[in-house]
Write a structure and sequence with these properties.
It is a single chain. By secondary structure, this protein is an alpha+beta fold. It has one domain: Nuclear Transport Factor 2, Chain: A (Roll), CATH 3.10.450. It contains 3 helices and 6 strands, in the order ααββαββββ. It has a 6-stranded mixed beta sheet with strand order 2-1-6-5-4-3. A hairpin with a 2-residue loop joins strand 3 and strand 4.
């Protein structure tokens, strides 16, 4: 894997998690591709517009967002990331306190990496 691309994607992963934690809709808008499809832990599929609206409206409010176990693979010009994230907060009216495994696909568009697809599964909950 190209070391520069790897460093850029790792940096964008950090930015993405910070944007999730701080409800930074502007940064999320920059990092997510307009045609994003994301499968949640219950099997529901969300678009970028749906995700941004949940952050804008306050339906997502996260207090802790800490990553570990990051893995990256380059596939052609894309980068696939698997990462464990510990999350504490509120999502659509339900308290969240657990570990989740995210899978994201990053694609380079005119010198900007964007998430084009993703999914998350629950690893554990404390509730």
């Amino acid at each position: 894997m190209d070391a520069t691309h790897k460093a850029q994607v790792i940096d964008n992963e950090k930015k993405l998690l910070l944007a999730m934690k701080t409800n930074n809709v502007e940064l999320l808008d920059q990092l997510l591709h307009d045609e994003l499809l994301f499968n949640g832990p219950s099997g529901e599929t969300a678009t970028k517009a749906m995700d941004l609206e949940n952050y804008r409206s306050g339906n997502i409010n996260l207090h802790t967002v800490e990553s570990s176990d990051l893995m990256l693979n380059m596939v052609g010009d894309d980068v696939v990331v698997a990462v464990t994230v510990e999350i504490l907060g509120n999502y659509l009216g339900q308290e969240i306190d657990g570990k989740f495994r995210y899978l994201r696909v990053w694609k380079l568009f005119e010198n900007n990496w964007k998430v084009i697809a993703g999914s998350v599964v629950t690893l554990s909950t404390d509730n």
